[in-house]
Design goal:
Layout lengths: L7 E6 L1 H4 L6 H12 L4 E7 L3 H12 L4 E5 L10 H8 L5 E2 L1 H10 L2 H12 L3 E2 L4 E3 L8 E7 L2 E6 L3 H20 L4 E9 L4 H7 L1 H4 L5 E7 L2 E10 L2 H18 L4 E4 L4 H12 L3 E5 L5 H7 L8 E6 L3 H8 L3 H7 L4 H14 L4 E7 L14 E7 L5 E7 L6 H24 L1
Parallel strand pairs: 1-2, 1-3, 3-8, 13-14, 13-15
Antiparallel strand pairs: 4-5, 6-7, 7-8, 9-11, 9-12, 10-11, 15-16, 16-17
């Protein structure tokens, strides 16, 4: 598609999307495939199962885009209106493709046909000159249709597995041959921890104005990402375009970059500990097992993770981790002294090279003036028995889950930095 073309749009159809009953993963998936084809994807829209609104949306899109991809509304039920609405948008009648009815009958049992033959049959009607997109995994075919010169529509069911199969088997080659100019987009994402999105952006103003590659920051809870995207004819060419920018970023943010693309803090730590042939255990209080879960969610965790003790109550801190009642009473469960003892004792009890302990007040209740909601203590001890103590006070506007998640992030990133310092 040439730089002067009007681009591609995605129209998602379904009232369930507007109500929030279903997350629109189809649009995300299609967007990624369009980028791989190097196509200019400018807009996404969502409309409910309403005949007039679908028509209005299609007519508007036809005036500003070259290619429209729709998902949803191709099934047999009364609210599946997409094909009819598209035809009406251009005042074109629908005609039955009898071979499609034969295919549907082969796919379904006789009992289903007896009850739903009339509604199922509506899936066989298309504009006369439309090309059918076969649906190997369902009964609702899609179509490729050019109702007016310079504007093409591709329709897909809303069921993700059906849509993806139809895309791979039919749509990909069609779009590539008709709309792609042999250029594609390739991206490489750098992941940061321990620094905010605004701080990253302030330091890379010059890079944010680049045209090829482009650099875009975005953030998740406790994590910042920089996506570097190059437009090129091959992946190798794209990597060469991305390389100098990537090297500049790694030099500028060496302490904060923990990985790329599909890396996570847990996966990076597992890899590093496995390389060192070292093991780790946890003693958790306020995170209630979330720290352990973050590690065990990664395949290969068993190479390094021995186990954990989730000692939420003071009684279990005393009985399982040997924290004295005197220390618990004097210092409180949420204190540097107790957290440090938790780390030392769990490391000894579970016989591991490394241990992380965490105790805090995740809220929304339980805070005081001296120990507010969001106060978290973390202690890390390793093979030399040196203790690293960390005190964090997260903003009290954070909810309970956010404080727990951010606490886990600090635990993992703090250990990453300790390991990084030891490898130098």
């Amino acid at each position: 598609m040439s730089p002067n073309s009007k681009g591609v749009e995605i129209l998602s159809i379904g009232t369930e999307l507007l109500l929030g009953n279903i997350v629109n993963t189809n649009a995300q998936w299609i967007s990624e495939r369009l980028s791989q084809l190097g196509l200019n994807h400018f807009r996404q829209s969502t409309v409910g199962d309403n005949y007039d609104r679908i028509i209005n949306a299609i007519q508007e899109i036809s005036k500003r885009s070259n290619l429209l991809i729709t998902t949803g509304g191709l099934g047999p039920t009364p609210d599946d209106l997409t094909t009819e609405a598209i035809a009406k948008s251009f005042n074109v009648p629908l005609f039955e493709r009898k071979h499609l009815w034969d295919e549907i009958k082969q796919k379904l049992s006789n009992s289903k046909l007896q009850d739903n033959s009339s509604s199922l049959r509506k899936q066989c009607f298309f504009p006369n000159n439309a090309q059918i997109i076969n649906n190997p995994r369902g009964t609702a075919p899609g179509m490729i249709w050019e109702p007016i010169k310079g504007f093409t529509i591709l329709t897909f069911p809303g069921v993700p597995s059906e849509m993806k199969t139809m895309w791979e088997e039919t749509a990909f080659e069609f779009i590539k041959n008709k709309f792609s100019d042999s250029y594609s987009f390739f991206s490489n994402t750098l992941k940061f921890s321990g620094i905010g999105e605004s701080s990253v952006a302030e330091k890379i103003n010059d890079l944010l104005n680049l045209k090829n590659p482009t650099v875009a920051p975005y953030a998740n809870l406790g994590e910042v990402k920089l996506r570097i995207t190059a437009r090129a004819k091959s992946e190798l060419e794209a990597k060469n375009i991305i390389k100098p920018v990537k090297e500049k970023l790694k030099k500028k943010f060496s302490k904060f970059i923990f990985g790329e693309d599909h890396d996570t803090l847990p996966s990076v730590l597992i890899k590093e500990l496995a390389k060192r042939n070292e093991t780790i255990v946890f003693a958790e209080s306020c995170t209630g097992g979330l720290l352990s879960s973050s590690i065990t969610s990664i395949s290969g965790a068993s190479k390094v993770f021995q186990g954990s003790i989730v000692s939420y109550s003071n009684e279990l801190k005393n009985s399982l981790l040997n924290i004295s009642e005197e220390k618990l009473t004097k210092c409180g469960a949420v204190s540097e002294e107790v957290c440090e003892a938790m780390a030392i004792n769990v490391k000894e009890k579970l016989r591991s090279d490394w241990a992380i302990a965490i105790s805090g007040i995740a809220g929304p209740n339980g805070g005081s003036q001296d120990k507010p909601v969001g106060l978290v203590y973390i202690s890390i001890t390793g093979p030399n028995n040196h203790i690293t103590n960390i005190k964090k006070i997260f903003n009290s506007t954070r909810n309970r889950i956010e404080i727990q998640t951010l606490s886990v992030n600090v635990c993992l990133n703090s250990l990453r930095l300790i390991l990084l310092s030891k490898s130098k």
